[in-house]
Design goal:
Elements: H1 2-19, E1 36-43, H2 55-64, E2 75-82, E3 85-90, E4 95-100, E5 103-105, H3 108-111, E6 120-125, E7 131-135, E8 140-145, E9 150-153, E10 163-169, E11 174-179, E12 184-188, E13 194-198, E14 214-216, E15 222-226, E16 231-235, E17 241-245, E18 258-263, E19 269-273, E20 278-282, E21 288-292, E22 305-310, E23 315-320, E24 325-332
Antiparallel strand pairs: 1-24, 2-3, 3-4, 4-5, 6-7, 7-8, 8-9, 10-11, 11-12, 12-13, 14-15, 15-16, 16-17, 18-19, 19-20, 20-21, 22-23, 23-24
Length: 335
């Protein structure tokens, strides 16, 4: 346990220094009718600075998994229906929650499982309201059926290598799942059967180096965080390479530890960067526009953000992982 604590503390110190390059980034622009990001809410609601545990206490609780059944520990992904109703994957607590009107509950079919999920990573909604989510250590995709509130494994014969990001394509009715350890993306039908696989390890177009997150817009365009190549690759709905952008660095528009990815209704691309403690926004071509957030524990601040989700009304949900909360923002006057 002492080794884990030491590594965690060293990582946090490194994160403080790497985040300084992002602290001066533009967070909003509210004049002249220009688009800007506004803070809406957070969950848990009462998460004031004075009420939070010290960093040392939070590390201790994480290591011993204290209170994991009743409160958020380390949320890594979120799927939002609206600011009062969303799903949370809590990797620290090894479970999945649904928030309804400021009340967080684990559905009975999830709560009664004998074993907790060992490494939850990402989730996505399907057209009928069902939720898919991945566990990278169990190498499985799970399906929560909204109509009968049941939980099942999607195709128990499916062989995956560290599934992480997952997204559902409205354009093709396909499920796309990132296999980080295999440096590829698998495309599945609704039954979880493999249709095709895309990519191999490398740094050429269409190749990956430990890819993680994925997002698919309503037109079927696919955005994949190619994490250790420090870039985003864009594919069309057929899996054909379109373009790429990004590089490693400490300036605005560069990547340090890119995590979640999403797009708004105007086609802008949002990426949560855990080591910069910000959400960076790019246009359709990959040109950096601005960012919001900085390292901290107050509202509109982040501590290693991970997952991000944007709904049809441009509400932006951010899994603020090490602040143990979800923050909700909204794009105003988008263009």
């Amino acid at each position: 346990m002492n080794i884990k604590l030491l590594l965690f503390c060293l990582f946090c110190v490194f994160a403080v220094f790497t985040s300084k390059a992002q602290d001066t980034a533009i967070s909003k622009n509210e004049h002249d009718g220009a688009p800007y990001i506004t803070w809406v809410s957070q969950y848990p609601i009462h998460k004031d600075h004075d009420e939070r545990h010290s960093a040392a206490r939070r590390v201790y609780e994480f290591l011993i998994q204290k209170n994991k059944k009743s409160e958020l520990i380390r949320p890594v992904a979120v799927v939002g229906k609206n600011p009062a109703n969303f799903w949370i994957l809590d990797q620290g607590g090894e479970t999945v929650f649904e928030v309804r009107k400021d009340k967080m509950v684990a559905p009975h079919s999830i709560k009664k499982k004998d074993n907790y999920f060992t490494s939850l990573v990402d989730a996505c909604p399907m057209t009928n309201g069902d939720i898919l989510f991945t566990d990278s250590r169990l190498n499985k995709i799970f399906l929560f059926n909204e109509s009968n509130k049941s939980l099942s494994e999607l195709n128990d014969t499916l062989q995956l290598q560290q599934p992480t990001g997952i997204a559902y394509s409205l354009a093709t009715n396909e499920i796309w799942v990132v296999e980080t350890a295999a440096h590829r993306v698998s495309v599945l039908n609704k039954k979880g059967e493999v249709i095709k696989r895309i990519g191999s390890r490398g740094d050429e177009n269409g190749q990956f180096n430990f890819p993680t997150s994925i997002w698919i817009n309503n037109s079927g365009d696919v955005y994949i965080v190619d994490a250790m190549n420090f870039r985003v690759q864009i594919f069309n709905k057929n899996g054909e390479f379109v373009s790429t952008f990004g590089e490693a660095g400490d300036a605005s528009g560069n990547f340090a530890r890119p995590k979640g990815i999403a797009t708004d209704s105007y086609g802008n691309i949002y990426i949560a960067d855990a080591l910069f403690h910000v959400v960076q926004i790019f246009d359709k071509t990959g040109k950096f526009l601005y960012s919001f957030g900085k390292q901290g524990r107050e509202k509109e601040e982040f501590w290693m953000p991970a997952g991000i989700y944007i709904d049809s009304k441009n509400y932006i949900y951010v899994a603020d992982s090490y602040n143990s909360r979800i923050q909700v923002f909204q794009l105003i006057n988008g263009s």
